[in-house]
Write a sequence for this structure.
C-alpha cells in the first residue's frame, strides 16, 4: 500500500516545542520547513503589489495615450494597446492575490511536486467564504434589495431633510449596524451602492472622499459584531469558543455601536461645512439606472427570502449556491421589475478572496506563535496590526488553534481583528466589495495609502472603545 503523503502545510501541532521567545520558535520552524519563508516572501510581495497597483493603472493610461497618438499620427483609428491592457490587468487590486497564487503554485510544484500543489489548492484551502461573499454581494446589489434598503435608510435621512449630509450620516452610521442582521458583505454592498448615488455623485473633495471610505470600512468591520453570524472574523471563533448572540451583545455589541457613533460624529464635525455644502454646486445626484416599472412588495419579499437563505446556510456551499441558481431564474422571470444582474464585480471580489485564502493558509506558522506570545493589550494591538496585512478572519481562526487562551485573550484578539478591519482592502472580507463598487468615484482608482489615512482615526476610536471600556 502506498503511504499517504505528508500533510501540506505541516499542522501547527506537528512542530516540536522549543524553549525561548517567539523569534527562536520562528527560526526553528524555518529550519524545519524552509518553504515557510518562501511562502511568506511571496505573500509579502503580493501585499506590496496591492500598494503599487495604482501605479500600474497610471502607467497603463499613459501608454494607451501614447499609443493613441501614434495611431492618429499614422492616419489610423485609435485601438487598444496590448501592453496598456496587460498593465491595467495587473493594476486591478482584485486580481493581485490570484496572480501571485500562480507564483505560489509554481514554487510548491517545484519544491514538493504537482500532486502536493493540487491537493493543497483543491482540498486544503477552504473557499466557502469567497463563494459566500460572491453570492451575497450579487443578491444584495439587485434592484429590489437596494430599493428596500434605500427606503429604510431614507426614512432616517428624511429626518435631516434628505440632504447629502443627512444621507452620508445615515449610511455610514446606521447602514453598518444592519450588517449584524444581513451580514457584513451584504451591508457593505448596500452602503457602497447608496453612498455612490447619494454622496460620491456630488464629487466631494479627495480628503472627504477617502475619510468617508475609511470610516465606512471601519464601521462595517465592527458593525457586524452585535450578532454571532454576520462578521467573518467572529464566525471563525463562535463554534470552538462557544460564543452566542448574548455573549456578542454583552462584550462587543454596545462597544461597537458606541465606537461607530463617536467615530462618525468626529468625522461629521470635522467635515461639517463641506458636507452641508454638497448639492449646492449644481451637481445633481447620480440617477438610479433602473427601469421606471415599480418593484412589487412580493418581489422584494422573495429577494429578502433568498438573502435569508444564503445567510442561514452560509457554511454550506452547495445549499447557498443552489439557492443562488434558483435566484437567477427568479430574476429572469421577473425581468420587468429588475435591473440587470452584473456578476463581474462579485466575481472579481470572490477571486480576490480566493487568492487571499490560498496565501493565508500558509501563514499560520508565524501568525500563531506571534499571537500566542502576547498578553491581552499587546495581543489586541498585534491582532489589529496583523489584520492590516491579512484577512482578519484568518487571524481569529489561527487564534482558535493557540492552546490555553483565556477569555480576556480571546476577547482581545477578536476586538483587535475587527478594529483593524478597515485599514486596508485585504483586512476584512467585505472590503473588496466596497472598493469594487466605489473605485470609479476616485481618480485612477482607490489609493491604499489614502484608504489607510482615512481609516486611521476611526480605527483608533473604535479600538479604544473595545480596549478601555
Amino acid at each position: 500500500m502506498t503511504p499517504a503523503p505528508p500533510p501540506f502545510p505541516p499542522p501547527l501541532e506537528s512542530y516540536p516545542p522549543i524553549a525561548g521567545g517567539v523569534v527562536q520558535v520562528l527560526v526553528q520552524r524555518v529550519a524545519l520547513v524552509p518553504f515557510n519563508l518562501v511562502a511568506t516572501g511571496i505573500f509579502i510581495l503580493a501585499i506590496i503589489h496591492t500598494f503599487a497597483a495604482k501605479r500600474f493603472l497610471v502607467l497603463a493610461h499613459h501608454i494607451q495615450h501614447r499609443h493613441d497618438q501614434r495611431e492618429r499620427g499614422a492616419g489610423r483609428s485609435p485601438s487598444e494597446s496590448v501592453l496598456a491592457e496587460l498593465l491595467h490587468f495587473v493594476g486591478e487590486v482584485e486580481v493581485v492575490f490570484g496572480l501571485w497564487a500562480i507564483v505560489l503554485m509554481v514554487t510548491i510544484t517545484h519544491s514538493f511536486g504537482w500532486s502536493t500543489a493540487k491537493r493543497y489548492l483543491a482540498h486544503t484551502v477552504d473557499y466557502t467564504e469567497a463563494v459566500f461573499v460572491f453570492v451575497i454581494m450579487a443578491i444584495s446589489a439587485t434592484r429590489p434589495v437596494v430599493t428596500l434598503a434605500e427606503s429604510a435608510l431614507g426614512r432616517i435621512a428624511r429626518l435631516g431633510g434628505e440632504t447629502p449630509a443627512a444621507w452620508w450620516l445615515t449610511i455610514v452610521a446606521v447602514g453598518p449596524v444592519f450588517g449584524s442582521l444581513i451580514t457584513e458583505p451584504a451591508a457593505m454592498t448596500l452602503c457602497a451602492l447608496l453612498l455612490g448615488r447619494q454622496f460620491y455623485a456630488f464629487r466631494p473633495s479627495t480628503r472627504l472622499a477617502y475619510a468617508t471610505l475609511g470610516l465606512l470600512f471601519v464601521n462595517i468591520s465592527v458593525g457586524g459584531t452585535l450578532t454571532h453570524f454576520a462578521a467573518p472574523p467572529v464566525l471563525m471563533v463562535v463554534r470552538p469558543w462557544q460564543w452566542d448572540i448574548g455573549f456578542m451583545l454583552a462584550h462587543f455589541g454596545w462597544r461597537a455601536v458606541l465606537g461607530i457613533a463617536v467615530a462618525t460624529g468626529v468625522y461629521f464635525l470635522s467635515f461639517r461645512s463641506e458636507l452641508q455644502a454638497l448639492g449646492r454646486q449644481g451637481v445633481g445626484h447620480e440617477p438610479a439606472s433602473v427601469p421606471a416599472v415599480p418593484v412589487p412588495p412580493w418581489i422584494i419579499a422573495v429577494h429578502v427570502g433568498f438573502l435569508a437563505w444564503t445567510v442561514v446556510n452560509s457554511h454550506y456551499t452547495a445549499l447557498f449556491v443552489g439557492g443562488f441558481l434558483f435566484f437567477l431564474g427568479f430574476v429572469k422571470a421577473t425581468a420587468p421589475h429588475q435591473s440587470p444582474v452584473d456578476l463581474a464585480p462579485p466575481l472579481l471580489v470572490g477571486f480576490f478572496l480566493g487568492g487571499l485564502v490560498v496565501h493565508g493558509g500558509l501563514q499560520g506558522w508565524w501568525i500563531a506563535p506571534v499571537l500566542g506570545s502576547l498578553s491581552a493589550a499587546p495581543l489586541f494591538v498585534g491582532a489589529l496590526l496583523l489584520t492590516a496585512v491579512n484577512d482578519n478572519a484568518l487571524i481569529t481562526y489561527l487564534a482558535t488553534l493557540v492552546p490555553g487562551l483565556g477569555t480576556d485573550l480571546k476577547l482581545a484578539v477578536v476586538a483587535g481583528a475587527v478594529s483593524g478591519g478597515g485599514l486596508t482592502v485585504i483586512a476584512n472580507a467585505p472590503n473588496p466589495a466596497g472598493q469594487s463598487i466605489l473605485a470609479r468615484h476616485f481618480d485612477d482608482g482607490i489609493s491604499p495609502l489614502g484608504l489607510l489615512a482615512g481609516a486611521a482615526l476611526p480605527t483608533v476610536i473604535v479600538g479604544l472603545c473595545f480596549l478601555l471600556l
Q: What stands out?
A: Residues 129-468 form one domain. The two ends are 59 Å apart (CA to CA). Residues 177 and 223 are 5 Å apart (CA to CA).
